Amino acid sequence: MTSWLPLSPGERSVAIEVLVHGPLSRTELARRLRLSQGSLTRLTKPLIESGLLVEAADAGGPAEARQGRPSRPLAVVAESRSFIGFKITEDVVYGVVTTLRSDAVARLDRPLTTHDPGEVADLLAEMTRELGARFPALAGIGIGVGGLVRDRAVVGESPFLRWRDVPLAELVGERTGLPVVVENDVAALVEAETWFGAGRGLDRFVVLTIGAGIGYGLVLGGRRVPYPEENRGFARHWIVDRNGPLTPDGERGSAVSLLTIPSIRYQIRAATGHDATYEEILARAAAGEPMAARVIDEAARALGTLVAQIANFAMPQKILLAGEGVGLMDVAGDVVDATIRANRHPLAAPVGLETKVSDFHDWARGAAVLAIQVLVLGSVQG
To answer: Any bridge partners for residue 172, and if so which?
Structure first.
């Protein structure tokens, strides 16, 4: 298959614009990129010849009116390459295969029975071979890990996997023969939502995730803002209520102590002497059981306070709430909304809060988007 690599900076800009916002007419594409028609023609010609772009047969609108043959909008050939995205949790590896436009076309999950880096890399390679048998045009692998990742290659620290300085990209690359990108899982999810999801086309956008931990990602000018403390557990020290609970994983009254699934389960276990799943606790709270209702209401107030603080200081056009803990909104969404209003100026515009019911395959898809950005398009967004 003909390769379109390497892309020049100009070709990359064209490819990204069509990938994220296409199909686009040449006139619209030139306007967006502030290019002359001649410059655009020079940049698009090799992309069409290599098979990355194609003239769309039908983009839902009329062809451009120009002298001579009408010009059809340009679109990306989404199926020209496939990408694998992996999300590694403490006990499962979730895998997806996506097209160039990040549409998930296959899933494959495997239990994780060891945290030995070499054996984890062996498992990822085995999953890659199984997926590659069905999708031979694999262009690369993206891996999302909860923890600190350096240079999109080395897991500097992962509390869930108990890893330090693990060269995961090298380990998996040696076993698969494919280029590999490793990134913090929240950062990968933010990139995916910015390009293809809730943040598409927005200038200021925030992703807040709740689940086993708390993740935060900020997008300004349409680009994710990287920061050194990414996923170093900052929410353990993000104090929401000084009189709130103390849990093993966070400071007293911190966002982690009030809002994460392990902390909510810990509070119920400490109060009742019995363990319960997060879903059971939510159901009990919905049914009016006093202890569960109190813990869930405190979590809802914590979430409302966080959202209001983010809105007050980052001033995003939209906040996306995602993660495996978003079921909180179904049970106590009214408490979250009331707390947001109480912590905002009375005349402030409503917060654009969107809730996304997601699973770990969405996180894996985010890792695949990182592979698309870095390995194929050469984009360095973060």
So the answer is: none
Domain with residues 80-191+362-376, CATH architecture:
2-Layer Sandwich (3.30)
CA nearest to 295, candidates 332, 325, 321: 332
The torsion angles phi and psi of 220, rounded to 5 degrees, stand at: -130, 135
Q: pLDDT tens digits, residue range 343-353?
A: 999 999 898 99
Residue range 9-76, CATH number: 1.10.10.10
Residue 136: Cβ within 10 Å count: 9
Contact between 150 and 163 under an 8 Å Cβ cutoff? The reply is no
Per the DSSP assignment, residues forming a β-bridge with 229 are none
Q: State the Cα–Cα distance between residues 58 and 40, nearest whole angstrom.
A: 21
Q: Write down how long the chain is.
A: 382
The pTM for the full model equals: 0.84
pLDDT in tens, 272-314: 999 999 999 999 999 999 999 999 999 999 999 999 999 999 9
Distance (Å, rounded) from C-alpha 114 to C-alpha 328? 31
For the structural domain made of 201-355, what CATH number should be given? 3.30.420.40
Contact 191, 185 (CB under 8 A): no
Q: Which amino acid is at 348?
A: A
Q: Name the CA dihedral angle for 120, 121, 124, 125, rounded to a multiple of 10 degrees.
A: -140
Q: How confident is the model at residue 121 (pLDDT cuts 50, 70, 90)?
A: very high
Residue 139 near residue 376 (C-beta atoms within 8 A): yes
Within the chain, strands assigned E span: 53-55, 74-76, 82-88, 92-98, 104-111, 138-145, 148-150, 154-158, 163-166, 180-184, 204-210, 214-220, 223-224, 318-322, 353-355
